[in-house]
Specification:
This protein is an alpha/beta fold. Helix content is about 40%, strand content about 20%. It has a seven-stranded mixed β-sheet, sandwiched between helices. Helix 4 runs parallel beside helix 6 and helix 6 packs antiparallel against helix 7.
Amino acid sequence: MITINFKNIKTEPGQKILDMGCGEGRHVARACQEKNIFCQGADLSFSDLLKTKEKLQLHEKLDDFKNSSWGLNSTDITSLSYKDEAFDIVICSEVLEHIPKDEKAVKELLRVLKHKGTLAISVPRFLPEKICWMLSDEYLDVNQGHIRIYNKKNLISMVTKLGTTHYKTHYAHSLHSPFWWLRCLIGCNKTDSFLVNLYHKLLVWDLMKKPKLTRIIEKMFNPLIGKSLVLYFIKDA
């Protein structure tokens, strides 16, 4: 699912974008739909990068990219294998909640970001995440494990003190919060639940079709129960 709103990062032709913790490459694919940019997808998981490669090659066959190119690399977020100020934009979506040394990770993201470049971060939002933790111990081991719950004010403070200016906040994926609450109630490792599987089919259908009704519903409920907190920063000159 796309969490970062590209209207808030204002790409320009010729820019280089890093999607750190790219997973299976949804933000890489979305970035390459911008005009004439290069997007580097990076992740510690080599298997995820192989899946990303297949998806991006399919997008290319469908002529879905606007003269944009991409690359993939396996690297550790706390010790990135890139030169200083290598990227105009850095995206880090749903990653920091997995990282023990999260401040060190943010320092690395900023090291490879150009001055006045844009850093876009998303993490699970406090309330939906707290409910998941309360409902199920199994949830902590799902999706490679969540080790902390972020408070918006504290996360903004951590990133700004490292040399950035925060300029935008929004919430995303309110339809996903009830899905995870339901899954936590029934059992995160249970695969034969009719209700969970039905809800999952709804989310996949919504992702693929993007019907107007669910877009309106999600937009209405994002400020209340959006699953993701999305923050945007400018690296200070």
